Amino acid sequence: MTSVLPSADSGYLPYFLLLSTVAGTYNAFQNHFVIWQSKEIYSRKSDEMTFLAGRMFGIWTALASLIRGMATYNVNDRVAYDLAIGTYALATWHFTSEWLIFGSIKPNRGSIGPLIVGWTGLIWTLTQRDHYLS
């Protein structure tokens, strides 16, 4: 099992990247078949979460997961690392703006995870950039 896990020689960020990759991959797949979890995230405007919107969100999440997965095993590569920062920045902007600007999200069990993962990933990758890329 340890052969598939990333190295933690320089820190634990690769494990967080892997965790968010796995969670995102699950979310991407489920958005192609059921949308009740996404309706829970966007609970203030759940009627706007259609199967088409779910599939589009699923593809967007799959791309973010692919980038984060590459960064998991290439955490010292500048391009992979910076792209991972970008995925967290976009996710953080999306979920925070949907909550505070557009009003489609209310904090609940469905939305708290994406908000925490987005903010944690963004802050962690930004503050540790020099450590992993030096």
TrEMBL record:
Location relative to the cell: Endoplasmic reticulum membrane
A GO molecular-function annotation: protein-macromolecule adaptor activity
Family matches, as Pfam families: Erg28
Presence of keyword ATP-binding: no
Signal peptide segment: none
Domain of life: Eukaryota
One Gene Ontology cellular component annotation held by this UniProt entry: endoplasmic reticulum membrane
The protein's name: Ergosterol biosynthesis protein
Family recorded in the similarity comment: Belongs to the ERG28 family.
Topology in membrane: Multi-pass membrane protein
One GO process term, biological-process aspect: sterol biosynthetic process
Main location: endoplasmic reticulum
Upper lineage: Eukaryota, Fungi, Dikarya, Basidiomycota, Agaricomycotina
Annotated transmembrane regions: 12-29, 50-71, 83-102
Keywords for this protein: Endoplasmic reticulum, Lipid biosynthesis, Lipid metabolism, Membrane, Steroid biosynthesis, Steroid metabolism, Sterol biosynthesis, Sterol metabolism, Transmembrane, Transmembrane helix
